[in-house]
Amino acid sequence: MSADLHTAQDALDTATHLQARLAARAAHHDRTGIFAQENIDDLRRAGLLSLRISTPGRPTPFTLGVVQDIVGRIAQGDASTALAMVNHYMVRAAIAHHEFGSGDVARWMEGEQHDQLVNILLAEPDLGSASRGGLPGTVASRTAGGWVLDGRKAYVTGIPGLSWLLVRARTDEDPARVGTFMVPAMADGIHVIENWDHIGMRASNSHEVTFTQVALAPDAALGLHAPDAPPAGGNILMLWNTGLLGSLYNGIATSALAWFGEFLKNRVPSNLGAPLSTLPAMRDAVGGFAITLHMNAMLLRLYATDVTAARPLPELNAHAAVIKSRVVDAAADFTAALLGLAGNAGLSAHNPLERAHRDALCGRIHAPHGELLRRVAGQQALS
């Protein structure tokens, strides 16, 4: 049974309470690559998977800004678990805003499925990231009883703990349509290829998944449309994705700096006779890191406020490019700089800094990639 969180402060306090518990498990799950199901169970019992996302028609305390803060706190405990939360809540937000169909889907998801973990499957081994366009290779074929799904998806984060998969596919019609199909994670014909073995986010279990003649009901298809004519207003998924990833990677950087600060206060070299934290050079360096984190927090708050206020999409996309390049992608440079100052202690697997750096490196692989963002910004600046 999950708790019922009514206020933003309740949710933030709950996330803070769970942070240390998740952190205590993080090294084990990183080393083994085992999915931290107990973390998901803790989040479910605490009510952190069931938040009712705020929409213009139904305001609640749980705006993008609040969910960003929750994800950031969980990320300071375990980044892989926080990544599963990012995917869960960007989907929940899109559903709440009717991005995948009618209000019936939103009511069903917030009703009997309120605490079930979900993710959307966009990338494919052959197609790559959906952000670069192209028709998906995964195909939904019409049958007398509904649909049959065949294909393969990559980077299915959290697959051991997922209850529902939203699968991007094209139909077998002529001309083909593209849309999202709601698929039970335990349906017959689904096979997990356990090939996630990356340098970071190791416990996210972002494996590949194949679909072979997976039978679906007629209403499993959500929002089918022509490939070159997506429905208007369908942007909440990616806007929330950017904001939540920003908080995730800023949370990683925050935890890295917290460890480094304690290291400086406790490390007393014999030739110095005082903690490293007394050195002006170290204080200057830590001050620079702290200012960066504060700047990131300011950017994330501004971004969340503008998304909630439904600012014009070109403006929001420009803001999203800043979050991706200056918060998400930059977390790897942030943790690398800390490693350079911490020396051997930072590289030791006994300490969390090296894991934070490996997890931060994964920020650069999230779509849209930095190269694509720069090219789009350049085209707009030169037009």
UniProtKB/TrEMBL annotation:
Chain ranges passing through the membrane: none
Nucleotide-binding listed as a keyword: no
Superkingdom classification of source: Bacteria
Keywords: Flavoprotein, Oxidoreductase
One Pfam family named in its UniProt record: Acyl-CoA_dh_M
InterPro entries hit by this protein: Acyl-CoA_DH_C, Acyl-CoA_Oxase/DH_mid-dom, Acyl-CoA_Oxase/DH_mid-dom_sf, AcylCo_DH-like_C, AcylCoA_DH/ox_N_sf, AcylCoA_DH/oxidase_NM_dom_sf, Mito_Isobutyryl-CoADH
Record-annotated Acyl-CoA oxidase/dehydrogenase middle domain positions: 121-214
Positions of the Acyl-CoA dehydrogenase C-terminal domain: 251-368
Name used for this protein in its record: Acyl-CoA dehydrogenase
